[in-house]
Amino acid sequence: MQLKRLAADVVIIGAGVVGTGIARELARYDLRVVLVEKRADVAFGTTKANTALVHAGYDAEPGTWKARLNVRGNALYPKVCGELGVSHKNTGSLVVALSEEQAAHLHELKERGETNGVPGLEVIPRERVLAIEPGVNAEVVAALWAPTGGITSPWELAIAYAENAVANGVELLLSSPVTGIDMRGGRVVSVRCPGVVIDTRFVVNAAGIWADDIERMVGRDDFEITPRRGEYYLFDKRVGHLVSRPLFPVPSQSTKGIVVAPTVDGNLIAGPNALLVGDKGDLATTAAGLAEVIEGARRLVPGLPVRESITNFAGLRAVAVPAGDFVIGVSPGVPNFVNAAGIQSPGLTAAPAIAEAVRDILADAGLELVEKPDFNPVRERPMRFSELGRDEQSALIEGNPLWGHIICRCETVTEAEIVEALHRPVPCTTLDGVKFRTRAGAGRCQGGFCGPRVVDIIHRELGIDPEQVTKKGGRSYILSGPSKDPIQRQATCCCSAETGGADEHKIEMRECEEVGGHAHGRV
Amino acid sequence: MRTVECDVAVVGAGPAGLAAAARAKQCGAGRVILMDRDRELGGILNQCIHNGFGLQLLSQELTGPEYAEHFINEARDAGVETLLDTMVLEVTQGRRIVAVNRTEGLMQIDAKAVILAMGARERSRGGVIIPGMRPAGVFTAGAAQRFVNMEGYMPGKRVVVLGSGDIGLIMARRLTWEGARVEAVLEILPFPSGLTRNIVQCLNDQGIPLYLSHTVVDIHGEERVEGVTVAQVDANLRPIPGTEWDIECDTLLLSVGLIPENELTRDVGGELDPVTGGPVVTDEMETSTPGIFACGNVVHIHDLVDNVTREAWTAGEGAARLVAGQQPGGRTVRTRAGEGVRYVAPQILHVDNLASRDVRLFMRAMRPAERVQVEAVVGGEVVFSKFERVVRPAEMVVLTIPRGKVSPGRVSLDSASPDHASGGAQPELVVRITPRDCDTAAERGMKA
Predict the structure, then answer these.
(1) Which residues in chain A have Cβ-Cβ distances shorter than 8 Å to B150?
(2) What percent of chain B has pLDDT over 70?
(3) A58, pLDDT greater than 90
(4) From CA A24, how far away is CA A372, in angstroms rounded?
(5) Which positions of A are catalytic?
(6) Which residues of B touch A286 (CB under 8 A)?
């Protein structure tokens, strides 16, 4: 096969929220940046399966990357989300103490947060908690109020980062797993993907749960990623009003515990639990795990109705051992290979700050940063029919009738939005890709009604055969082939003559005739 | 925004909406507008290409599209106006509808009566909480049915069906006929959820095994389904450890129940029945919001389309009466599901109607039973009853109370059941299903 050869200043491996954030940061400068992603779309790894929280930053040990980048990232969120048209709500958050013992711990958290530079932390009494969150467990004793806590949409952010990066000259290669990294004289010289070799001066490893595998490609073994699975429940918008801001239990050693939080789309999310798994593909939910999530969630919000669950899923946290902290910096001994690895919680919050940190590390390692005069930091939020007023909706339909055609009834998504999503700077080709961009299929029926229609639109707009359309790339085909099989139809005809009732036979015969007259003779 | 006025606006043009619209028009309503989000009339009937529709009502065995055609013709002949590819975004208490389509854009429809006939949606994987991976190849049975029957594509080649609901059974047969191998149908309950005739024709006749008291406990496969783990369940429907086994398959179809599509109903407000998931309705099929009617699967999940049509006729008549200013007034009786009954609809009966016409009650049995008496009880007294050789939760029980059986005098405030919590002021009509052999209806009546 003819290898395509590209030249880059920086290759970023991994298009989750970390990799796309770094790509967009580097897009400000006069650099050739290539972002490679093994999956069919951006945000298809840990980014699509987490709690979607913007943490205030009181959890992490002072002095760690986590502590620093959380607080910095949190401060960057309003600007980043504003520029990129990404949903972000500064709801504040509460750590809910259900006993005096737990309440004592709130003060420790508050002190730690203050050391980390978290503004506005306050331990508030039971009455105030119940006043702002009436659905919380009535046994609440006190809570830590963190006014800078909030919620966002992780995939919206990663998609927006990627689109803005591409709009500013970054090249994005999807479905491009890194198969090898070439070294010369202790430095990386090129990155190989199927069908392409990218000669590069620097590599950034933002490969999430596969970051250790990527680092091994440059002969290093500084850390291991041990995936820690977290399971979630997502609840119908109908019960979205049960809580108004993220509610945390008092944390344990290993995790912040099972959270109940609103989502920016108006649903309610509960999770995650925490279980080390050996397999990086193990995204299975389990009966025990889901039960644990519900139990934990109901300790915070006893009225949470399981029957309003619309889906469950699991995500894998990329926990780096032995570090425990984010692994950010030049890989020892490979001066042009920079890790942005082990990005578990609060990685989503930290992402904008990680981008800055990696930029600075690259600069220290010798990358010249010359600002591009034409960098455009703005990415318009795609218009959503459901977010518009009636007059705006009317005007849109007048310009393009597809705005008047609702495809996803649960989330009120129009055909115009889906068509637009299929033709944006970062193209999507999958059902999940459409879902993450438009919310078609993300509602209470989970694509039961709109799935077939979205497949049809993907087929029409992109020229992909319906049988080739996938849920999420790879071999995740939706359909197995055409349904009308003449041979089978004849066989059915014989079968039903023997076993079926008279009327049924009649109908089958009619179908046979449509296929071919000789079928009759065989009966 | 264009504004349209009409007497009756019907939301949803499936079997319920079609029959309700036609009947309203036939009963004298002026302008009747029937709206549907899909590109053709008939709703889900269009993808139900199997036969068995209309046996009761039309004395014919029709396919879904044929049954639809009959009522499409009736609606057309009656002069019902239709709006297709039109999504209703909003219904207000004041009977103002906001709808949208490609050609008209947003439009406002002011109606004297609104009939909600949006049908149901299928319960999805998240609704039944099946653990495991999340690969492609997990479909609700109806979505698969659309792919096969409307779009011409197969969802897979080796199939396991979870749930013995009718759509799942029909699809097990359809996929077999289309050349797929259906490995098993699993039902978590100890009895089937679908009609007996479907168990016989769709499973037994095709040689597809049905495992009662079984469920899926794990789904395998990262990209596409590669198999499922199934297990037997105990009396509390919990999987029994040690009974698991794996079935290789590329597709899992879910036929695990329908949920009345009541988002618009909720927006309007008004009382919902916690058991049916639909609005509380009167014997005119009027919801607790005056002028807003409902019928079909929006109210409660039916098994036979014939019953949907009957209920829709009642709604159409009720809407026409409202438009004509001839609604029954006066006192009402609340129905209540008693012994052996999971729910009963309608939930509110007009005393005037009970006196002047036959009133049909739909109910679901709590559990399968043989040789039972289905009874309507007012003030401890059986006012009407009928014998049923067998009742099953899967098959709707219909009890039509002949006119005059419940006279206005009988339904006095004194007859309010003492255990009726809501103030105790409203009289009750309790329906119950009792074994006939140990305690006959007549005896019960005497004793009371």
Answers:
(1) 452
(2) 94
(3) yes
(4) 13
(5) 55
(6) 131
